[in-house]
Amino acid sequence: MRIVFMGTPSFAVSSLERVLESGHEVVAVFTQPDRPKGRKRELTPPPVKEAALVHGIPVHQPERMRSREAVKLVESLKPDLIVTAAYGQILPRAVLDVPPLGCINVHGSLLPHYRGGAPIQRSIINGESVTGVTIMYMAEGLDTGDMISRVEVPIEDSDTSGTLFEKLSLAGADLLARTLPEIEAGNVTAVAQAHDEATYAPNLTREDERIDWSRSARQIFNQVRGLSPMAGAFTLWNGEPFKVWRCVVERTETAASSEYAPGTVLSTDGEGIVVQTGAGTLRLLDIQPAGKRTMLAAEWLKGARLERGQRFGGDGQ
């Protein structure tokens, strides 16, 4: 098949590689424009662009797929099929109608649950034990198309967004390799989603990253690992952001039963910082104070003026 591939982050690279390994002709790759990254704000190409250039595949980076120029470009490529994976743009009907075999998407959740741009992070943040990948035909709505195939992937307590991205990337690539022959042969029986059961995973905001110490230890633990290693969860210490990259639940409780207010430091030792939450306690292990590198909490404690009874979340007093 002549395939146009559309994707942007590292999650999509495995799917692109698998399409190539399957012997199909990837006539072009579409990805998001290069963006400034890092402290120096250097213009950085998306991982999919880098992978495509290694294979000598032409790369296109339109700001808007809805533009007439982008639509005409897709039409000129005459693809049999368009494959997308975490592309970052919703394709207009004019593009969806181009390939005779349709447009399919590799989505990192078990649809209709977690439609949207952050399904992997939010599945961890919400404490799910199972997620997966769904391959579906694309429609004009947000992840609303009929489902072709899917695979389940367990979420372990040791998983972060980083490890789960990798697991789902590989699972999605394997599923895509098994699905493409069925599409090519015309043997697909797509199933409509139960739209009344749909849940959504919108892109994360700064407020999603803020730790609310009144929540349970387990909920905050899920938030921290769901935001690692990308944005990171944060609280305030002495009025400045204080990131938490890794923690463990020290003690669980079904409801608040402590004399200490949520966010209160209960102990500091060579193994980290124990903090009271709304239900249970949390031990902070890897942290990043404002203006500093990520470090072990125990290392930071050697020079920090942190005492039992002080509180995170406000001015630190």
Automatic annotation (TrEMBL):
Does Cell division count among this protein's keywords? Answer: no
Specify one Pfam family.
Formyl_trans_C
UniProt keyword annotation of Magnesium present:
no
Outline what the protein does.
Answer: Attaches a formyl group to the free amino group of methionyl-tRNA(fMet). The formyl group appears to play a dual role in the initiator identity of N-formylmethionyl-tRNA by promoting its recognition by IF2 and preventing the misappropriation of this tRNA by the elongation apparatus.
Q: Which top-rank group of organisms is this from?
A: Bacteria
Q: Which residues form the Formyl transferase N-terminal domain?
A: 1-178
The UniProt record lists the EC number as: 2.1.2.9
Formyl transferase C-terminal domain residues:
204-304
Q: Record's HAMAP family?
A: Formyl_trans (MF_00182)
Its protein name is: Methionyl-tRNA formyltransferase
Cross-referenced Gene3D superfamilies, in alphabetical order?
Answer: 3.40.50.12230
Instruction: State the similarity comment.
Output: Belongs to the Fmt family.
Can you tell me which residues bind (6S)-5,6,7,8-tetrahydrofolate? S109, L110, L111, P112
Keywords attached to this entry: Protein biosynthesis, Transferase
> Which reaction does this enzyme catalyse, per its entry?
L-methionyl-tRNA(fMet) + (6R)-10-formyltetrahydrofolate = N-formyl-L-methionyl-tRNA(fMet) + (6S)-5,6,7,8-tetrahydrofolate + H(+)
One GO MF term attached to the UniProt entry: methionyl-tRNA formyltransferase activity
